[in-house]
UniProtKB/TrEMBL annotation:
Family annotation (Pfam families): HAMP (PF00672), HATPase_c (PF02518), HisKA (PF00512)
Membrane topology according to the record: Multi-pass membrane protein
Localization, UniProt: Cell membrane
Domain of life: Bacteria
Domain Histidine kinase: 250-467
Any GO molecular function: ATP binding
Protein's name in the database: histidine kinase
Domain HAMP: 190-242
PANTHER family attached to this UniProt entry: SENSOR HISTIDINE KINASE CPXA
Classification lineage: Bacteria, Bacillati, Bacillota, Clostridia, Lachnospirales
Length: 473
């Protein structure tokens, strides 16, 4: 029973409610008791006063006095004694049973009465009665002197008795609220248990790779929020998993096709299908394919290292304009083949920046590669630099197909390729922009993208000018 948090919580709650119930009942009993006792004692004192007056007017042995005492005793439900200061009972309302008996008056309560005070106390009157009584002593006063004592004994008002309506109503309403509150708590606990069970089940299912599992809780409280977050997490994990699978499929494909052609050509050379005079041509293809594999492997390794902060940025001062030209030259043939147009808006003058030349080369290469790859005939590629304060902005802009708005936030993610069918771009691995982003981040610089579907794309990144080379600016 104590295994789950909810049952612990419920047990604690029930125990606390029960404790409150017990405390409240005791307190209320105590208060009501006090009220009944003081009420009873007031009444007894009142009747004592009347007897006091009668005593002073009437002869104690007269039948009138006796009758009056008897009716008073019945009316107030009390036993009345008239006692001398020495403790001799002169009259007992209960058929004079104890008349003539003397008891010890040295007790503090009795002494106090002899001194002239009203005294109220409870108990069995020093062992005389079998039950608990409330006893009131009223001194008979005349000329400032105590002439005797009036004792009034009544049964102790028993309020914890179930017949007492006061007590009954209180107890029943308390019991009712106790039961209702425990029942409500029980229902609430059951609901929470169900929520936890569902979350647990879903979390396990997600852990087992079922990323479509969702928690069906739509409340507006913290549970609803937790469910929404868990569902969001499952969706993100699902996307990641889909990306991973896509990546493995792409990678396998990217490795298999060059390997197939390498294997085919090498076999053909070995078994003489390709005559020695043609071998150079095919060996060159083999070399190109091997280079492609190497660069793919390097990309994967580089990205892994960049992501683990395992790569240091070797900052040097170099001319960024020169580097841009160098990279563009590598794409010259492709740009001509695709009948694209190119505009280069960079200064003739050298502009020195403080960065890792090799890695920035990679950044430029990956971005221009994308532009050239995704653009078609007649599209324009524009490369522009602008200095701003201690920075230089480098913009690579094309009039190509653009990127869908919902895709823009993913393009820097590993393995993300908008064109999943890989129809347009068989070589892409979806790693290019991730590498770009990691390199720019490692430099502490920023990169932004603006793109509109069917209009074109612009990437802008910053580099820091080299202050030591002011003369070239
Ligand atoms: N210049 C561009 N024009 C249109 N889409 C682009 C451009 N650059 C990047 N993208 C989109 O971003 C995706 C990720 O680019 P990248 O990381 O370089 O991977 P890959 O080039 O291997 O596809 C591309 O698949 C493409 O959908
Ligand atoms: Mg690319």
């Amino acid at each position: 029973m104590f295994k789950s948090f909810v049952s612990k919580f419920f047990t604690l709650y029930a125990a606390l409610t029960l404790l409150t119930f017990i405390c409240l009942t005791s307190f209320i009993t105590y208060v009501i008791n006090g009220y009944f006792i003081s009420d009873k004692s007031d009444k007894l004192i009142e009747s004592g006063r009347i007897i006091n007056e009668m005593y002073l007017l009437e002869d104690i042995n007269s039948s009138y006095f006796r009758t009056a005492i008897n009716s008073m005793s019945r009316a107030y439900g009390s036993r009345i004694w008239i006692v001398t200061n020495n403790g001799t009972i002169l009259m007992d309302s209960e058929s004079n049973k104890l008349s003539g008996i003397t008891f010890d008056t040295q007790r503090p309560n009795i002494q106090k009465a002899i001194e002239g005070h009203h005294v109220t106390f409870t108990g069995n009157f020093y062992g005389l009665f079998r039950e608990r009584m409330i006893t009131v002593i009223v001194p008979i006063r005349y000329n400032n002197e105590t002439m005797g004592l009036i004792f009034l004994h009544a049964y102790y008002p028993s309020i914890t008795n179930a017949t007492n309506p006061f007590f009954r109503v209180t107890l029943i309403s308390l019991l009712f609220s106790l039961v209702v509150s425990i029942m409500l708590m029980y229902l609430f606990s059951r609901r929470i248990t169900k929520i936890f069970q569902q979350m647990n089940k879903t979390a396990k299912s997600i852990a087992n790779g079922n990323f479509e599992s969702r928690i069906m809780i739509h409340s507006n409280d913290e549970f609803g929020e937790l469910a929404t977050n868990l569902n969001y997490m499952a969706a993100e994990l699902g996307k990641l998993e889909e990306m991973r699978r896509g990546f493995i499929a792409n990678i396998s494909h990217d490795f298999r096709s060059p390997l197939t052609s390498i294997k085919g050509f090498v076999q053909a050379i070995l078994d003489g299908t390709i005559p020695p005079e043609n071998q150079d041509k095919y060996l060159n293809i083999v070399l190109n394919e091997s280079n492609r594999l190497t660069s793919l492997t390097n990309d994967i390794l580089l990205l892994a290292k960049l992501e683990n902060n395992g790569i240091t940025i070797n900052r040097t001062s170099f001319d960024i304009h020169n580097l841009i030209r160098e990279v563009i030259i590598q794409f010259e043939q492709k740009i001509i083949d695709k009948k694209m147009e190119i505009t280069i808006l960079i200064d003739e003058k050298a502009v020195f920046v403080d960065a890792d030349r090799q890695k920035i080369q990679r950044v430029l290469y990956n971005m221009i590669d994308n532009a050239v790859k995704f653009c078609g005939k007649g599209d324009r590629l524009t490369i522009e630099t602008t200095k701003y304060k201690e920075k230089i902005n480098i913009s690579i802009k094309d009039t190509g197909p653009g990127i869908k708005e919902e895709d823009i936030k993913y393009i820097f993610n590993r393995f993300h390729k908008a064109d999943r069918s890989r129809g347009k771009d068989k070589k892409g691995t979806g790693l290019g922009l991730s590498i770009v982003k990691e390199i720019i981040n490692a430099h502490g610089e920023t990169i932004n993208v603006n793109s509109q579907l069917n209009k074109g794309t612009e990437f802008v990144f910053t580099l820091t000018l080299d202050k030591g080379n002011k003369m070239y600016r």
